[in-house]
């Protein structure tokens, strides 16, 4: 008597029938598929034992069901991308989700290195400084009327230049005679003292501190012999090529201020009318 040779699930005889051997015993084909086959994520049908099965991210597919959701191209042997759980061939993905390089006009492929600014996209190697034409990469840049400049090129092209050293002013600076100066370049022509934030004047367009201007160019007070600069609202009196500070213009005898008063010259001195009439 022959030994029984039955399906491990339905118990029907497997003599003369196709079967599949497993660790749990032999199965007829229908029982094997219903027990072990995966369900296709696309068509929801079982993937039979004799079908080529493809697996992606915990999902199973018939070979014929593994295709681009837009153009229906088979992706079995093609590169593809998954977008929001949908499978797309590279062509469809690029058409739907990639952008166009603002420099070369070519497609910026998904996953490639790119730069985005102001709603535009560039290949990394196409985003160049408009001055030196070197890739800007992750460096700081300055946009200007549709162009993009690295900081050195922008400063060289657009930044104001110091009236003294002709180098660019990148920050700060002062204005003298409607021209920009580095703070460290605006110094007294006489003593080289920095003049930024200080009171100063000029002679033949050259800047001078108050002290140097007074010593070099200002008339001297006939009384105290100190310079009369007239800066800071200081007032003075002049008479016959002689000059006095307001505070120094007084009678040589009684020291009465002569500012706004009549006076009488007496040699190198000036006298009030009272002292002049009193005699020597």
From TrEMBL:
The keyword Repeat applies. The gene is FHL3. Residues 38-98, 99-160, 219-280 form the LIM zinc-binding domain. One of its GO terms (molecular function) is actin binding. Recruited by SOX15 to FOXK1 promoters where it acts as a transcriptional coactivator of FOXK1. Pfam families: LIM, LIM_FHL2-3_N. This is Four and a half LIM domains protein 3. Its main location: cytoplasm. GO terms for cellular component: nucleus; stress fiber; Z disc. Interacts with SOX15; the interaction recruits FHL3 to FOXK1 promoters where it acts as a transcriptional coactivator of FOXK1. GO terms for biological process: actin cytoskeleton organization. It comes from the Eukaryota. The keyword Repeat applies. It comes from Leptonychotes weddellii. Keywords: Acetylation, Activator, Cytoplasm, LIM domain, Metal-binding, Nucleus, Repeat, Transcription, Transcription regulation, Zinc, Zinc-finger. The lineage of its organism: Eukaryota, Metazoa, Chordata, Craniata, Vertebrata. It is found in: Cytoplasm; Nucleus.
């Amino acid at each position: 008597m022959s030994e029984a040779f039955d399906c491990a699930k339905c118990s029907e005889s497997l003599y003369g029938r196709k079967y599949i051997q497993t660790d749990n015993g032999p199965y007829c084909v229908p029982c094997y598929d219903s027990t072990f086959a995966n369900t296709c994520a696309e068509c929801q049908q079982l993937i039979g034992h004799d079908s080529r099965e493809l697996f992606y991210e915990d999902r199973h597919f018939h070979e014929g069901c593994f295709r681009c959701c837009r153009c229906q191209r088979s992706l079995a042997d093609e590169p593809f991308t998954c977008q929001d759980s949908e499978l797309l061939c590279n062509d469809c993905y690029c058409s739907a989700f990639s952008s166009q390089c603002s420099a070369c006009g070519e497609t910026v492929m998904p996953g490639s290195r790119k730069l985005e600014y102001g709603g535009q996209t560039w290949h990394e190697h196409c985003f160049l400084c408009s001055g030196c034409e070197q890739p800007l990469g992750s460096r700081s840049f300055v946009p200007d009327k549709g162009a993009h400049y690295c900081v050195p090129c922008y400063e060289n092209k657009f930044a104001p230049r110091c009236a003294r050293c002709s180098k660019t002013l990148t920050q700060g600076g002062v204005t003298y005679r409607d021209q920009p100066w580095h703070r460290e370049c605006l110094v007294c022509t006489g003593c080289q003292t920095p003049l930024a934030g200080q009171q100063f004047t000029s002679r033949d367009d050259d800047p001078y501190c108050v002290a140097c201007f007074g010593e070099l160019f200002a008339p001297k007070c006939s009384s105290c012999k100190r310079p009369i600069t007239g800066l800071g609202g200081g007032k003075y009196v002049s008479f016959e090529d002689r000059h006095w500070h307001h505070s120094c213009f007084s009678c040589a005898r009684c020291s009465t201020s002569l500012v706004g008063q009549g006076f009488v010259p007496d040699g190198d001195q000036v006298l009030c009318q009272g002292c002049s009439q009193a005699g020597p």
